[in-house]
Every structure is written in C-alpha cells, then in structure tokens.
Design a protein that fits this description.
25% of the residues lie in helices and 25% in strands. The chain contains seven helices and 17 strands. Strands 1, 2, 3, 4, 5, 6 and 17 form a seven-stranded mixed sheet that branches. A five-stranded parallel sheet has the order 8-15-9-10-11. Helix 1 packs parallel to helix 2. It starts with 13 loop residues before the first strand and ends with a helix. It binds flavin-adenine dinucleotide. Flavin-adenine dinucleotide binds next to helix 1, strand 2, helix 4 and helix 7.
Length: 314
C-alpha cells in the first residue's frame, strides 16, 4: 500500500506538467519546471530510484563522493526548497482527453497538459532454476540492501559491468570472499573500479562462465556452472542490467525500440505530442544519474515550449 499524502494536491486541477518517477531524472526535470514557473507535480512509486541503492557515487559533478541515498537526500532538499509537490503512488495508465492527459493510479486520477515519463528500469533476472525460489533467501539484486547479512560469508556477483564491480567492492568490506562470475572475457567496469577490484584480495574474478542453476535447501548453498561444476556459495548477487519500465508509454502508443526503451529526440520529445521521456527508461546508450537529469531538464524546457505554443493564455 502506498503512503499517499494528498495534502495540497488539487485533483481537479490540470497541471502544466506531471513528472512520473522518483529518481534523479524526475527530480531534475521538476526542479527546472518549477523554475520556469510551471505548475508541476511529481508522482513516484518509490522516492530515490535506482541510484539510492548504491553505496558509492563519485561521478556526479560538484559532489566528490557520497552514497546514492545521500545524493537523493540533496535532491529532495532542493525539491523541497522550491515547494514542489511529490506524491508517492504508482501510475497504471495514461489516456488523452481533449488537450490534456489523465493519469490513473489505483485510487486517484491526475490531470496534466504535458507528462514526462521518467520511470527508470527494473533489474534483469537470470531466468534460471532456483532464482525465484531463493529470492530473499540468498538471491539478491541489491548489495547495499542485503550485503550486511553476509558478514564473513562467501558470495558471488553475477555480471561484468561497472555496477557489478561496485557491488563486489561494497560486499568485500564485510564478507570473507567475493567471486565475480562473468560470462565475458574481461569485466567492463570503469578503469578506476576495475583497478580497485584487481587490487582487492577478497575479490576473485571467474571469467567466461555462465551459471545455469542456483541450489540450496532453506537458503542458497551453491551455483551450478554451465560446465556442470557445482560451486559452493552463501549468497548470489545478480547485477546483469535492467529492463525499461515503459509499459505505460507503450499503451499510449509511444514508440519504443527493440529493448523496450522509449524513443526520444534531442528535445526529450516522444512521438506523442505532449509526452516527454528521460533517463533510464529512454533510449540513450549510456545511462547514469547525470545523463538522466540532463534529459529530464531538457524535457522540462521542451514541455514549457510546447505549452507556450499550444496554450495561448500561457
Ligand atoms: C548498482 C548501481 C550503481 C550505480 N552507480 C551509479 C553512479 O555511481 N553514478 C551514476 O550516475 N549512476 C549510477 N547508476 C545508474 C543510476 O542509478 C541510474 O542511471 C539512475 O538512477 C536513473 O535515474 P532515473 O530517474 O531515470 O530512473 P530510476 O532511478 O530507476 O527511477 C525511476 C523511478 O520511477 C518510479 N516508477 C517506476 N514506475 C512508476 C510508475 N508506474 N508510476 C510512478 N513511479 C514509477 C520508480 O519507483 C523510481 O522511483 C548505478 C546503477 C546501479 C544499479
């Protein structure tokens, strides 16, 4: 059940812009919209988004080093300083009526002339036997959330991205041993994180290996490699990328690419006039908080421009 604080929210009002999402992209978009004096509302399922699950952010300009949670607390302070209303709710569908959009959640309807979809992505699953069965009992998709339960244990991280490397580095602070199991030749982390991984005695990389099953009893005990070898492990952290949360957009006939990402142009416009998209849900190949914020900010500007052109009194 969502904690829907409706104080100060007028359900009859047609907002200039509703931003969907609670991550950096949505907040960046709303901050600019508020500064353009637009009547803006943010609706997000969970405040903070994906970045709030990482322990270390060292690449956001102006902030040398912080946690993802710390970064999003700063975003929240900025949002609050502009009195931007935020509702914790999940939008399930969007429909166009006359010159505005109606956004439906389970219990409410919200109206806006323009919408920015910044709904991010969900973690990809391996889709192998044992993954679902042991979810929460040794299988995790978030080292920051679950890592502390594995003190002095042996765990593995599945994946070879920069995120996977950072998950392994975080886990290594507490556990006895971390194996990075990667199907490719060499992990693809940022050079600085790659170096940290290679220099960390607790981390070992197993390359060119896929796991095909996760086994256990009441909790995870081992993983099975493609070769058939059984490998003893206490925890499996899966970090193999993500899938865009674009179903809402698809139902509205917003165009997506083969990966399901929303197609946007350099103005963060989609093919549907009045609908903008930005961040991890959109089709840029490189996805970070800063790139999402940048697309979100452009979406706010484009929505402002759209309103100037379509609403004479604006
Ligand atoms: C382990 C890890 C480490 C990372 N480290 C870094 C880093 O150091 N630096 C960096 O810049 N990036 C990093 N990233 C990437 C970064 O987290 C993402 O690029 C960024 O969070 C994208 O922001 P977003 O707002 O577009 O999407 P998200 O952060 O995914 O936010 C999407 C939001 O939309 C909400 N939502 C979804 N569906 C709905 C709906 N139907 N209705 C309402 N709300 C909805 C969600 O609850 C969520 O709040 C990392 C990612 C991972 C996994």
């Amino acid at each position: 059940m969502f904690n829907i604080d409706m104080e100060g929210i007028d359900l009859e009002k047609i907002y200039d812009l509703i931003v969907l999402g609670g991550g950096p992209t949505a907040i960046g978009c709303a901050i600019y919209a508020a500064r353009f004096a637009m009547d803006v509302l943010i609706i997000g399922k969970i405040f903070g988004g994906l970045i709030a699950t990482t322990h270390l952010v060292e690449n956001y300009p102006g902030i040398t080093s912080t946690s993802g949670q710390g970064l999003m607390e700063m975003f929240k302070d900025h949002m609050d300083s502009l009195s931007i209303p935020y509702i914790s709710d999940e939008i399930r569908s969007i429909e166009k009526i006359d010159d505005y959009f109606v956004l439906h959640s389970f219990f409410q309807q919200f109206k806006a002339y323009t919408v920015c979809i910044a709904t991010g992505s969900e973690r990809k699953k391996l889709g192998i036997p044992g993954e679902e069965e042991f979810a929460g009992r040794g299988v995790s998709y978030c080292a920051t959330c679950d890592g502390p339960f594995y003190k002095d244990k042996t765990v593995c991280v599945i994946g070879g991205s920069d995120s996977a490397a950072k998950e392994a580095l975080f886990l290594a602070q507490n556990v006895k041993k971390v194996y990075i199991i990667y199907r490719g030749e060499e992990i693809r982390a940022e050079p600085i994180n790659k170096k940290r991984v290679y220099e960390n005695d607790k981390i070992e990389i197993i390359n060119n290996t896929n796991i095909v099953e996760i086994k256990g009893d009441t909790k995870v005990k081992s993983v099975i490699f493609e070769s058939g070898k059984e490998f003893k492990i206490d925890g499996v952290f899966i970090e193999i990328g993500s899938l865009p949360n674009s179903d809402l957009a698809k139902k509205l006939e917003v165009e997506t690419n083969k990966k399901g990402e929303i197609k946007i142009n350099r103005k963060s416009e989609t093919n549907v006039p009045g609908i903008f998209a930005a961040g991890d849900v959109a089709d840029a190949p490189f996805k970070q908080a800063i790139t999402g914020v940048s697309e979100g900010v452009i979406a706010a500007y484009s929505a402002f421009d759209y309103l100037k052109q379509t609403k004479i009194e604006y």
